[in-house]
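Researcher: We're teaching a course module on how sequence relates to structure. For the next exercise, students receive a sequence and then see the predicted structure as tokens, so they can try to spot secondary structure elements on their own. Here is the exercise chain.
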Amino acid sequence: MTWQSDALQAALEIARGYPYSVQLIADASWTAAGRPDPGATITLEHVRHGGEAMKVDLEALFRARWANAAPQQRELMSAMAALGDAPVKRSGTAHQMNVTTASLSMPRARLIDKGFIQAAERGELEFTIPGFAAFIRTLDD
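Model: And here is the predicted structure for the students to work with:
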């Protein structure tokens, strides 16, 4: 199986560096191409169709994660999402929630244990899957 260079570049941009997303876009593009035999070529059009299918898969994953979070954990993730897609400062998140940073310790630890968020730089948190913050913002709309 080969990939056109523009198709490969588009797939990597869609995945945004997250390994699971790379797997999703590759599988969805292969499916969009009709699950061809070895020797076929994945095109940009296949990746575009695959990207749409991948969005559906990611939304299902995001919905499952959201449903698996306790109310205090959801509140923390909503505050993080409100601050944007990049890593956010714990202090900024606490301010957004109108609480102290110490009160974030337990929900933060639980979310890290679940693999929903991770420590970025010192004092910063980020979502483990690109696009989760944007998904959460759609819930608040």
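Model: If you want an answer key for the exercise: Residues 2-60 form one domain. The chain has seven helices and five strands.
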